[in-house]
Amino acid sequence: MPKNKNNLLSLGKWERDGRSYNACDGMISLLTKEKKTVAKGIKISNDLYKFAFKHTPRMSHNNYTFNTASPSQSWKTWHQCFGHVRYSGIKALIDNQLVEGLQINMNSLKPGCIACTEAKLSIAPYGPASG
Fold first, then answer.
1. pLDDT at residue 108 greater than cutoff 50
2. DSSP H or E stretch at residue 76
3. Of the spans 3-12, 68-77, 113-122, which averages the highest pLDDT?
4. Where are the domains of the chain?
5. Dihedral pair phi/psi, residue 82, rounded to 5°
6. Separation in Å, CA 129 to CA 13, 26, 125, 126
7. Pairing mode, if any, of strands 37-45 and 20-24?
8. Are the C-beta atoms of 44 and 98 separated by less than 8 Å?
9. Rounded to 5°, angle at Cα 112 from 111 and 117
10. pLDDT in tens, 27-73
11. Distance CA 129, CA 21 (A)
């Protein structure tokens, strides 16, 4: 992950396997199962925190894996990565510089999303029984 500027960390996924986090007064700390602080960050907007990670060649016996994305992904890729947020929401992140290093291939298509379309489907209620 050194030199990669596009990193997002899901706190929900961080909390798996007994890990936790502590957020208070605009600061956040990521804690291991043993309650050891492994990273600290500051609140920059709403529920968005900025961390400064430093690569250390070897950390005790614990292994942590972070998934990253390469620069200039498509609109569709970021739409899925951000939990199917609207394209206008992703554009707002870019315009307001809320995510450092978020780079989108502006020439990529903004296709309709089957999962989003299916999630919006509903069935009209049945009318009164006709006699």
1. yes
2. helix 75-81
3. 113-122
4. 1-54, 69-120
5. -90, 20
6. 48, 57, 12, 8
7. unpaired
8. yes
9. 165
10. 899 998 999 888 888 888 777 888 776 655 555 556 666 655 556 78
11. 54
